[in-house]
Here is the input.
Amino acid sequence: MSEPQRGEHWYRRGIRTLQFLSIVLMWVFLGGAIIWMVNLVGAARAQGDAITLSVGISLVAVQVYALVASVLTYVFFGLQRGRRGAEE
Amino acid sequence: MRRFEPSCTRDEALFRPTEETSRRFYVAVAVLLAVVLFTACMYVRQLIKGLAVTGMMQPVTWGFYIISFVFFIGISHAGTLISAILRITQAEWRRPITRMAEVITAIVLAIGGLHPIIDLGRPDRLMNVFVFGRLQSPLLWDVASISAYFAASTVYLFLPLIPDVALLRERDKKHRWLYEFLSWGWQGTPQQWKVLHRAINIMMIVVVPIAVSVHTVISYIFAMTLQAGWHSTIFGPYFVVGAIFSGIAALFLVMIAFRSAFGLKAYLKPVHFEQLGKLLLAMSVLWGYFTFCEYLTGFYGGEPAEMRSLLYKISGRYALLFWTMIVCNFVVPVAILSFRKLRTIPGILVSSITVLIGMFLERLIIVVPSLENPRMPFPTHFYLPSPTEISLFAGAVALFLLGFMLFAKFFPIISVWEIQEGRELGIAETEQRLSAYLPDEEVARV
Here is the structure.
């Protein structure tokens, strides 16, 4: 492999790693949202607040985050598979 | 399944803003940056001196910042809702509009979401929302719903952008790393198109209930209280209608500005303004109906606190603003847009400007007069926004313009692949329709 080819190879690898990290970040965000909601439901329980409402709202919000993260992940891996399929 | 052609150069005009930068662009960016910097200084001053630099005082504890928050989040409905509804209904004329609408949503949501933080005298206490927040509070529902809407609308903007980013990756060597990163390995293979279309279809359906719920939840921060003028069961749909209404008006302004600044007359044709103008007219009538219902029920009930607040708006200190709002949101748009001859680009421009002024006044009339008339025996304080609050509003508008200009500098503001897809589909559809009722060419020759 020549020097420019090696440079291009590492450049592409770096880009792909960053792309993968962006997907991971979305799931980390989802994890953070779940921890936050669980913490707030715990706080509601400790203060004797209406717990059902807290759980209901948390479930709706977390579902949206999860759906968005899932769609992004599906697209990311779907595009990678489509690209590899074309190269083969 | 279609094969994507990155070398296609039919729509060169759409790439021009990303490849050519005029002097006017730099001047505009410099002016907007100066406004944003000035605003930042005013905010730092507010941080140092506290909320005393604003016009807010007991009992008016919500002022320009919360008005701007509701106003900007309302405008954000332009994008996702309009784009998603037009995609779902397969309205072919949507193609040059959807990208602009989606960008408005993403930028305005980010700006609008900052306003409650600006409204906090001590922004360092923001973390308390995450640690000690009460999920029973509509304020926290706002945090959850706006962040979910922001995530969903950003993804909804990003997905249809991928094929265009791949086109730019081939053209722009200077920012290749950016386009390479954002194109996610797009090559336009049939498998990739299938995945992308499926994801866009999922998102266009999902974002509609999210967008509707966001503005409903924003109305709850008012409606869930027992404050006169706020405690209303129709506030949810009333806010949603107002949001779509102001969103369409903002979209028109952006369309008209970009049409003239970037020479996009071939793409943003009078038919687009005509069709969307009808939607603005429908929303204006709907807004008038909701306003009538909202005030009639309050008036008919005749509850003393409610009546005091209502009369304060329509014939008291806020009468001028109230009737200006009615003229701007109902009289002017209906008078202009009802007539085909007036439903031209200048007519739509006038209607859109008045609607945006009217909707800002509507938010002001909802927030402030009710606070000035509390149920408790409190001396009434007449709220006037301070220079700090006005400059922060100006800064938010400048930030929006700056964000939009920078987006247009790096990405096509009109979806290139959707325009090309529209052409292909249009030709195929016409051929299919003709072959259904006309004899085949070979048969006709025999």
User: Anything to note?
Assistant: Chain B touches chain A through 38 residues (CB under 8 Å). Chain B has one domain: 21-122+134-373+383-411. The mean pLDDT of chain B is 88. The first helix of chain B runs from residue 12 to 19.
